[in-house]
Amino acid sequence: MERAATRRHYLMVRPTYFDVVYSINPWMNPEKPTFTGLAVAQWEGLRDLFTGLGHRVDLLDPRPGLPDMVFAANGATVVDGRVLVARFRDSQRTAEAEAYLEWFPAHGYTDVRQARWTNEGEGDYLVAGSRILAGTGFRTTLRAHRESQEYFGVPVVGLTLVDPRFYHLDTALTVLAEDTVMYYPKAFSAESRELLEELYPDAVHATAADAAEFGLNAVSDGRHVVLPQAATGLIGRLREHGFEPIGVDMSELLKAGGSVKCCTLELHGTGLAGRSH
């Protein structure tokens, strides 16, 4: 199958203040040393890769005291130019929302508000064609799903996560194209697995080993799939499905429970998507 890339618009935050000084997910260990310079180098490589593929990358300035702010995907969801800013579960991250509430209006977005219910942006909301796939179970709440469906005016399909290692939907599932996803089945409840099988019978399935390497925390433009280079099994399966995988090293950022997708907030509906190249 011939896969076509479309130009995307991303928002990213440089990991200037990256560190692991608390633990709010199973991957974080404050006793394990971190190297901010290495995190910055890995992040810069990802940003340069996106721009090299023809995508637009805007930057939101990092703020001191917010070491997880590099994970821009958690900050908001943007659909058709409407912005729903996150309401974080954990107190260590709540101050990040203010930066997004300021950035979007300053850059021409007129429909911007913060979620009422706990909602961690594209960590749990993934746009898939005419629907939004929405995770729940650890962070984003079911009430937030209803709120998002009303705000964006598109169907929101709830999926329940059951493995605490995969606490956001974007750690367990990647939207590859409008009608294609890849995911780790055991990260989901039985009911959600049945729903995914019904919606995406030709999905790419990840093994436990590739999921543990954060191979599903990936970004696709419809053809190129940027993912952690250690997810070697997924890289092979993506090629079999006609995609062009590009492996990158995000090992330093993984110490905080994030990788490619966590660092990348897609701004849907800004006039850039939909152009083949």
UniProtKB/TrEMBL annotation:
GO MF, one annotated term: arginine deiminase activity
UniProt entry keywords in alphabetical sequence: Transferase
Superkingdom of this protein's organism: Bacteria
Pfam entry (one): DDAH_eukar
GO biological process, one term: L-arginine deiminase pathway
NCBIfam families, sorted: DiMArgaseDdahMtb
Protein name: Amidinotransferase
